[in-house]
Write a structure and sequence with these properties.
The chain is α/β, with parallel strands linked by helices. Helix content is 55%, strand content 12%. It has 8 helices and 5 strands; from the N terminus they run βαβααβααβααβα. The chain has helices at 23-36, 51-61, 70-95, 105-115, 120-130, 146-159, 172-188, 202-217; strands at residues 11-16, 41-45, 98-102, 138-143, 193-197. It has a 5-stranded parallel sheet with strand order 2-3-1-4-5, sandwiched between helices. It is globular and about 45 Å long.
Length: 218
């Protein structure tokens, strides 16, 4: 499959990994560091990002929506992504900004394409419509063992009385399949996807992330 990369002035970096891996925290820390350097940074997250995307997010992640079918789930993720690309991401990249995104199409590939068994081609067909060739220049995959990630995610949900827990509540085997799919994806695209050991201290993970990112934003 040939992916056409869009020409733009900015830098597009995504964070991927299992829920509870620490990617959201690390993305915020990276944004703070970059802004202290004088760089203009857009932080976004999927599902969510734009005001319209946040409305879609509530449908996707509400633990009450157990009847949501895999196909409907995939379509909603890409509806949210299309809005994010058009309203926020592409304009920021065209301005020359750095865009940091908590998840992007890689998440759909591993969660819906592999985890839900929908297949890679339906995911990429929707990507061609919603993203029109936009591919991250760098993807940071924070790797953590499954049990630790789920424990962290469940503890966060209890602590924050979180209703957006539908994906966290999937069977352990589902998350195991997703974890393996992430590893396979990273093995296929080593130039773009850099694997970070997320089982260490936050400071150690942050240091490793910066060693990689510095080469892209200097």
């Amino acid at each position: 499959m040939v992916v056409l990369r869009m020409a733009h002035r900015g830098t597009f970096i995504t964070f991927e990994g299992l829920d509870g891996c620490g990617k959201s925290t690390q993305m915020r820390r990276l944004a703070v560091r970059l802004r202290k350097m004088g760089r203009t940074v857009l932080e976004t997250a999927e599902p969510g990002g734009t005001p319209i995307g946040l409305k879609v997010r509530r449908i996707l992640l509400d633990s009450a929506n157990r009847e949501l079918s895999p196909a409907a789930e995939l379509l909603l993720y890409f509806a949210c992504r299309a809005q994010n690309v058009d309203e926020w991401i592409v304009p920021a990249l065209e301005r020359g900004d750095i865009v940091l995104s908590d998840r992007f199409t890689d998440s759909s590939l591993v969660y819906q394409g592999i985890g839900r068994g929908l297949g890679v081609e339906p995911v990429m067909a929707l990507d061609r419509i919603a993203c029109r060739g936009l591919v991250p220049g760098l993807t940071l995959l924070i790797d953590i063992d499954l049990e630790t990630g789920l424990q962290r995610a469940h503890a966060r949900n209890r602590r924050e009385n979180e209703i957006e827990s539908r994906m966290d509540e999937q069977a352990v085997e589902f998350h195991r399949i997703v974890s393996g799919a992430y590893q396979d994806l990273a093995a296929r695209e080593p130039e773009r996807i850099k694997v970070i050991d997320g089982g260490r201290t936050m400071a150690a993970v942050e240091r490793d992330i910066w060693e990689i990112v510095a080469r892209y934003v200097s």
